[in-house]
Amino acid sequence: MTVKILLERKFKEELSLGDITIINALRITAMQWKGYVSGETLVDMDDHKRIVVISVWTSKSSWDAWHGSGERQRIEADLNRSLKQPPMVRSFMLGADYLAEVFDEVVHESETS
Fold first, then answer.
1. Which candidate, 27, 86, 79, 77, places its Cα nearest to that of 56?
2. What is the pLDDT of residues 22-59, one digit of tens each?
3. What range defines the domain where residue 39 resides?
């Protein structure tokens, strides 16, 4: 099941060249990671200190492996110094995948009743 990860970062100051370089390094490294599909970085038009990264992964376990990897943590450690607070990370599935899971549960419950 494909998952989309929404990662929001709030910076102390507007993005510096160093911050952008680290964000790019994270993306380049993630692209080589098993399960990575795509990603994009968005900058809030009203608050340039806030960015959102949306990445697509083949599975939640692929994302979890990347998110917990030492390689990612080493790269991100430099970026964290520029953040106002820890990043907010949320994971989403497609509505159709959710409905399929719910349908499967309902069918399974009716078969065991």
1. 27
2. 999 999 999 999 999 999 999 999 999 999 999 999 99
3. 3-112
Burial degree of 9 (CB within 10 A; 0-12, 13-18, 19+): buried
**How many beta carbons lie within 10 A of that of residue 11, not counting itself?**
18
**Separation of alpha carbons 9 and 85, rounded Å:** 8
CATH of the domain at 73: 3.30.70.100
- Please count the structural domains in the chain: 1
Angle between helices 17-31 and 70-80 (to 10 degrees): 170
* DSSP-assigned beta bridge partners for residue 90: 6
Name the band, by pLDDT with cuts 50, 70 and 90, for residue 112.
confident
**Residue 32 in contact with residue 62, Cβ under 8 Å?**
no
Where does the pLDDT of residue 94 fall: very low under 50, low under 70, confident under 90, or very high at 90 and above? confident
Q: How far apart are CA 102 and CA 99, in angstroms?
A: 5
